[in-house]
């Protein structure tokens, strides 16, 4: 059976098997066998090709990385663990946002702190999207039971919905702009996820504690790791169930 994923990735990047062979230093017939006979390259060649076609090793060769190996690599994906979100340096948020070129994903209930600590954030997101990046914002639906439950658990009834309506006023300015998607969800949120290309900050929610007082993991994606991918998949699952806010609910 041919490796159609590898074939598609090579073609999608404007390459040919001969070009790939030349770039990684192997014979062109070897690359053809990797494609047509689904042979698995040596690890050094797998990583070189994955970087060349901008795909993960496990995607191109699902059987090449065992779960145990993926878990071990995943441990190296954690750059830093912060005991609380308020300990994450402001400069780190700014650096991650500024460096992002392909993708900015925000999954939160409100995430109001982002626009409060950087008044230029909305303009920056608009510029990133205009430059070709995908900007996807997923906010909690302020009318959903999950939002009220979260406020009650934190001992501040009604506060979360108010924060969401406040942050809506910022994101309404770019909602519908080319490359920008603003949607709403009613998920019971276990983590807030902030992705910037291949780096991510995961704010792990703790029962009874506001998000600023809960831990944050700084992750950097590694080929073959599974930790970053776990949270990226979680974002995609919430995205698939998210929806536009009905016009009558949108803050003025």
3D architecture notes:
The chain has 252 residues and is an alpha/beta fold. α2 (17-24) crosses α3. It has 12 helices and 7 strands. Helices cover 45% and strands 16% of the residues. The protein has 2 domains: 4-64, lambda repressor-like DNA-binding domains (434 Repressor (Amino-terminal Domain)), CATH 1.10.260; 73-249, Endonuclease, Chain A, CATH 3.30.870. 29% of the residues are buried. The N and C termini lie far apart (57 Å). A 7-stranded mixed sheet has the order 1-7-6-5-2-3-4, sandwiched between helices.
Short description:
The chain has 252 residues and is of the alpha/beta class. It has helices spanning 4-12, 17-24, 28-36, 43-53, 57-60, 67-76, 90-99, 112-117, 121-130, 145-153, 159-171, 227-240, and strands spanning 78-82, 103-107, 134-140, 180-185, 191-196, 199-204, 216-220. It is 45% helix and 16% strand.
Which terms summarize this structure?
Endonuclease, Chain A; 12 helices; 45% helix; 7-stranded mixed sheet; 434 Repressor (Amino-terminal Domain); alpha/beta; 252 residues
Low-confidence stretches: none
Structural class: alpha/beta
Helical element count? 12
The overall strand count is 7
CATH-derived topology of the largest domain:
Endonuclease, Chain A
Supply Rg: 21 Å
The residue-averaged pLDDT reads 89
CATH class of the largest domain: Alpha Beta
Overall body shape: elongated
Can you summarize the main beta sheet? 7 strands, mixed
**Total tally of structural domains:** 2
Beginning-to-end CA distance, first to last residue: 57 Å
């Amino acid at each position: 059976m041919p490796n159609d994923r590898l074939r598609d990735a090579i073609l999608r990047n404007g390459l040919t098997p001969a070009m790939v062979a030349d770039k990684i230093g192997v014979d062109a017939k070897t690359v053809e066998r990797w494609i047509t006979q689904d042979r698995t390259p040596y690890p050094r060649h797998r990583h070189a090709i994955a970087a060349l076609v901008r795909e993960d090793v496990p995607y191109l060769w699902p059987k090449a990385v065992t779960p145990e190996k993926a878990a071990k690599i995943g441990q190296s994906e954690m750059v830093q663990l912060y005991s609380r979100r308020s300990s994450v340096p402001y400069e780190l948020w700014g650096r991650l946002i500024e460096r992002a070129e392909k993708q900015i994903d925000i999954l939160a209930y409100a995430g109001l702190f982002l626009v409060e600590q950087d008044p230029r954030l909305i303009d920056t997101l608009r510029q990133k999207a205009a430059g070709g990046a995908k900007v996807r914002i997923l906010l909690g639906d302020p009318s959903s039971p999950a939002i009220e439950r979260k406020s009650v658990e934190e001992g501040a009834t009604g506060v979360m919905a108010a924060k969401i309506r406040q942050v809506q006023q910022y994101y309404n300015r770019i909602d519908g702009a080319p490359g920008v998607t603003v949607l709403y969800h009613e998920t019971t949120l276990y983590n807030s996820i902030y992705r910037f290309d291949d780096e991510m900050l995961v704010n792990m929610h703790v029962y009874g504690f506001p998000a600023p007082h809960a831990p944050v993991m700084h992750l950097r994606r590694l080929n073959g790791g599974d930790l970053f991918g776990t949270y990226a998949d979680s974002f995609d699952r919430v995205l698939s169930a998210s929806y536009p806010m009905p016009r009558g609910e949108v803050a003025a």
